[in-house]
């Protein structure tokens, strides 16, 4: 089974429809506290499990939420793609298969065949076993769990059987009288019931804290968006004049632009004609006619003739001859006057044309203002000078409206269907509930010992009293199927306590008969894998590692002396726990193909080992799928798929 896409709607803090796309290989899902990482892990196991096994109240963001749905698209073992939709509120399910036309068509809608199909895909393992073996939480690591250490000086003497003498630290020794054993068993079961109540209150507190953090986050973001909208409204006051624009303002602007273009073309044409007329006017000499060459020549000739006639007192033919230049001069002077009169008329005609061009320009401007009155009115209302500036302002206003709509959508997303005041009341109510639960936890008496050690003593007592263990009896290794070839038998635990330091879900998964059958059949390979991973992570090479009858790791010094698990440092316990579960998951993934889901387990390791674990996960993901949910950012490489939760 390979997960391809997860859709969530109305589940915890995913109040809006959210889709997360996965890919084969390593998927890095990163996000801060309260971003929904644990929800993704929990809902993946809830979707592939029978819907009746998932309590509805653990998924709803609010008790009265109408929607609580999840959908998972995955690739099955037959390489076909399916989509499984769960409606947890209505307790309905639907399984659809992707056909050749790239469309999903429903194949199953009854819970029983869907559960059978999913069981076949996961190898027949129940949900709690899948969750214990193929997932890991930081809270499940040994360093995160409060464990009581059995010190060497408190260990039982060698002559006493460990099956009957070892009891949890801080609890009473296991009695030998059957009646006392029964009484002691009842006391321990009462302690376990009290522990269950404490765990339920702690779970309730954790859920309330998660909801409170999400509510506070939504309140903070909604308040910030409201403040941003207020600031944006102040900036938008400059666009107040654009709110009352007529509906046909686009047509008005378009018509105005066309008219303005015609006016500009007419203005250019008139300007060109006027320029030509002015050039023609400048080409006409503008000087008095009496300085014309013809007038000067005629005047000179006439004056000469008059002087000669007066001075010489000629008569007869000579006098008549002198009259000829006189008349010629007068003619020249008259011609000069005629020429000047023609130039004057021509200048007057050109000047008349220039004045006419000015009048045409004035009439065109008046006609443009009259025809463009609506647009001019828009200019006055909006404070713009022309169409271009108004269009620029309208463009800025459109951007302003887009930003405001986006901010309002974000604020409404954070608010949901509530107001800021209602969110604030919800946050106060959750804070009050948290204080109440914390007060109850503080007032409740704590357990006298670690819960896992109490469970171990109950297990010992039930074995001795021949009472079936609640998790089911351990299978007989000799009756389980094994692979061909010699298999190294598991050694006996030197201290009988190693399995206590494994996380309870992982330890419970190891006790399932089909799981033990696979692991015992690949016992040598499991040891080899653990040794190799330990060496890659820089574990102590001088320590020899093996597995006990519970398939828990045990250690021996070079002198073959048992090394008790509980004296190891918390860092080494975390490292060996991680190595053990990764090795088990690699072997189990063959008969039980299921993605490996790690919920923030790496922060317990130092930075160099985190990088090594990432490289190991990349190798594991080459033959399957790994989902690493983390509150810290890890550098991704080519081939990694990064998903960020906000």
How would you sum up this structure, described in words?
By secondary structure, the chain is an alpha/beta fold. It has helices at 37-47, 111-121, 127-134, 162-165, 178-235, 249-283, 293-312, 317-371, 373-382, 387-415, 420-443, 451-464, 504-510, 513-521, 523-536, 570-588, 607-621, and strands at 2-9, 18-21, 25-31, 69-75, 81-87, 92-98, 104-108, 135-137, 544-547, 553-556, 562-563, 596-599, 625-630, 641-645. The strands form three sheets. The chain has a six-stranded antiparallel β-sheet with strand order 2-1-4-5-6-7. Strands 8-12-13-3-14 form a five-stranded parallel β-sheet. A three-stranded antiparallel β-sheet has the order 9-10-11. Mean pLDDT is 78; it is low at 146-172 and 467-497.
Throw out a few tags for this protein:
646 residues, 5-stranded parallel sheet, 53% helix, alpha/beta
């Amino acid at each position: 089974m390979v997960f391809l896409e997860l859709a969530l709607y109305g589940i915890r803090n995913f109040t809006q429809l959210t889709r997360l796309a996965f890919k084969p290989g390593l998927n890095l899902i990163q996000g801060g506290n309260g971003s929904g990482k644990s929800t993704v892990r929990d809902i993946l196991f809830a979707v592939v499990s029978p819907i009746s096994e998932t309590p509805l109240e653990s998924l709803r963001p609010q008790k009265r939420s109408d929607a609580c749905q999840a959908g998972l698209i995955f690739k099955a073992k037959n390489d076909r793609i399916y989509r499984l939709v769960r409606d947890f509120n209505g307790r309905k399910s639907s399984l659809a298969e992707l056909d050749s036309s790239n469309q999903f068509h429903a194949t199953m809608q009854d819970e029983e065949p869907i559960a059978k199909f999913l069981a076949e895909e996961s190898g027949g393992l129940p949900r709690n076993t899948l969750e214990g073996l193929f997932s890991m939480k930081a809270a499940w690591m040994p360093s995160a769990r409060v464990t009581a250490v059995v010190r060497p000086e408190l260990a039982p003497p060698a002559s006493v059987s460990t099956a009957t003498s070892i009891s949890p630290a801080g609890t009473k020794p296991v009695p030998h009288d059957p009646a006392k054993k029964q009484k002691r068993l009842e006391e321990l079961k009462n302690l376990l019931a009290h522990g269950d109540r404490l765990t339920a209150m702690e779970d309730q507190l954790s859920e309330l804290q998660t909801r409170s953090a999400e509510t506070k986050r939504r309140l903070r973001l909604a308040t910030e968006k409201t403040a941003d909208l207020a600031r944006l409204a102040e900036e938008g006051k400059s666009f107040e004049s654009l709110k009352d624009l007529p509906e046909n303002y686009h047509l008005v602007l378009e018509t105005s632009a066309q008219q303005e273009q015609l006016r500009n073309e007419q203005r250019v044409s008139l300007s060109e004609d006027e320029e030509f007329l002015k050039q023609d006017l400048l080409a006409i000499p503008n000087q008095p006619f009496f300085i014309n060459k013809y007038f000067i020549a005629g005047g000179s000739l006439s004056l000469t003739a008059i002087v000669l006639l007066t001075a010489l007192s000629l008569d007869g033919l000579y006098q008549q001859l002198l009259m000829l230049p006189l008349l010629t001069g007068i003619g020249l002077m008259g011609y000069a006057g005629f020429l000047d009169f023609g130039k004057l008329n021509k200048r007057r005609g050109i000047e008349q044309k220039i004045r006419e061009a000015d009048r045409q320009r004035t009439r065109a401007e008046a006609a443009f203002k009259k025809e463009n009155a609506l647009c001019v009115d828009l200019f006055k209302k909006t404070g713009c000078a022309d169409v271009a500036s108004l269009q620029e302002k309208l463009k800025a206003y459109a951007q302003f409206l887009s930003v405001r709509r986006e901010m309002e959508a974000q604020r409404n997303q954070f608010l949901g269907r509530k107001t800021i005041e209602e969110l604030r009341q919800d946050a106060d109510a959750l804070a009050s509930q948290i204080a109440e639960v914390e007060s109850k936890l503080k007032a409740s008496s704590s357990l006298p010992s670690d819960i896992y050690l109490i469970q171990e003593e109950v297990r010992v007592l039930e074995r001795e009293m021949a009472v079936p263990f609640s998790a089911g009896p351990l299978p007989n290794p000799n009756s389980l199927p094994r692979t061909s070839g010699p298999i190294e038998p598991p050694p006996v635990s030197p201290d009988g306590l190693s399995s206590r330091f494994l996380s309870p879900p992982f330890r419970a998964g190891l006790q399932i008969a089909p799981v033990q059958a696979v692991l015992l059949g690949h016992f040598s390979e499991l040891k080899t894998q653990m040794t190799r991973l330990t060496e890659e992570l820089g574990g102590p090479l001088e320590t020899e590692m093996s597995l006990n009858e519970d398939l828990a790791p045990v250690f021996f010094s070079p002198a073959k002396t048992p090394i008790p698990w509980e004296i190891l440092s918390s860092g080494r316990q975390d490292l060996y726990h991680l190595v053990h579960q990764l090795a088990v998951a690699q072997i189990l993934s063959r008969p039980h193909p299921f993605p490996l889901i790690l919920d923030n387990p790496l922060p317990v390791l130092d930075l160099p080992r985190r990088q090594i674990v990432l490289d190991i996960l990349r190798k594991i993901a080459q033959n399957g799928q790994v989902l690493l949910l983390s509150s810290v950012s890890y550098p991704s490489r080519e081939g990694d798929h990064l998903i960020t939760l906000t």
